[in-house]
Design a protein that fits this description.
With 120 residues, the chain is α/β, with parallel strands linked by helices. The chain has five helices and five strands, in the order E-H-E-H-E-H-E-H-E-H. The protein is globular.
């Protein structure tokens, strides 16, 4: 069983991912933005982080950079629906440290496959 941290400003996404991965016997914690997520990472180790790109306070790109700098072994899935301006910044997440980039919306099967692959 892995410890997964979901960082997303959308409560529905946090709840959905928590439900999906807890049903697969993982321990899932949630944070509403990168600042909160980084505080949680400082308090306890996680195996994997799933983070949105566009969030208030501390957005995903900055969060990814800090996670990889401070916790280089943590796997990261970056996800985005494109943001309010319709710009797709998701491809930039990979060179910054994301292991996988995922466009929203996604299916349960896709996210489960991605996370399973990263944790194996």
């Amino acid at each position: 069983m892995a410890k997964i941290l979901v960082i997303d400003d959308e409560e529905q996404i946090r709840a959905l991912l928590k439900r999906i991965f807890e049903s697969l016997d993982h321990f899932v914690f949630v944070a509403e933005n990168g600042a909160v997520g980084l505080k949680m990472l400082a308090q306890e180790p996680f195996d994997l982080v799933i983070t949105d790109i566009f969030m208030p306070e501390k957005e995903g790109m900055e969060t990814i950079i800090e996670i990889k700098r401070d916790y280089p072994l943590v796997k990261i899935v970056a996800m985005s629906g494109g943001g309010s301006k319709g710009c797709d910044y998701l491809p930039m997440a990979k060179p910054l440290g994301a292991d996988v980039c995922l466009n929203k919306p996604f299916t349960k099967e896709v996210i489960v496959s991605i996370v399973s692959g990263l944790l194996s």
